[in-house]
């Protein structure tokens, strides 16, 4: 997955320092980050063409709302890992919605990155204890 961002340094810092991604590669125009099996690319909006006729991204298209209608789900291995990341995000005051047990049996919390991309952080163990 690749996200187009307003400020590369701010976005790299958010995904690295808040969500625990490791920077694998970084240039002025691109960053590749990894957390477990998830690889995330970040590219600067400023390098996109302003207008275009095709379905690709342009500055004009992204000015209407980055990530509108998209929920990015980061699935962690365990509920304990999820709780630890939630506590870290609380300390940094970046949580948008609190950690909750959902009706489908998984815990999650939600937040937005610096560009407003909507993130749901959850775990893959539906049999985890609810306490």
Number of H- or I-type helical stretches: 3
**CATH class call:** Alpha Beta
Structural class: alpha/beta
Tell me the β content.
Answer: 25-35%
Poorly predicted tracts of residues: none
Strands, total number: 8
Query: What's the end-to-end separation, in Å?
Result: 33 Å
Secondary structure: helix percent? 10-25%
**CATH architecture label:** Roll
Task: Give the overall shape.
Answer: globular
Major sheet attributes: 4 strands, mixed
Polypeptide structure, described:
This protein has one domain: 2,3-Dihydroxybiphenyl 1,2-Dioxygenase, domain 1. The chain has helices at about 10-20, 60-65, 80-90; strands spanning about 1-5, 20-25, 30-35, 40-45, 70-75, 95-100, 105-110, 120-125. The longest helix has 13 residues, at about 80-90. The strands form two sheets. A four-stranded mixed sheet has the order 1-4-3-2, covered by helices on one side. A four-stranded mixed sheet has the order 5-8-7-6, covered by helices on one side. The chain is globular. It is built from three helices and eight strands; from the N terminus they run βαβββαβαβββ. The protein has about 130 residues and is of the alpha/beta class.
Blueprint (SSEs and pairs):
Layout: E1 2-5, H1 8-18, E2 22-26, E3 31-35, E4 38-44, H2 59-63, E5 72-76, H3 79-91, E6 97-101, E7 107-112, E8 118-123
Parallel strand pairs: 1-4, 5-8
Antiparallel strand pairs: 2-3, 3-4, 6-7, 7-8
Protein name: VOC domain-containing protein
Organism: Dactylosporangium matsuzakiense
Domain VOC: 1-124
Quick take:
By secondary structure, the protein is of the alpha/beta class.
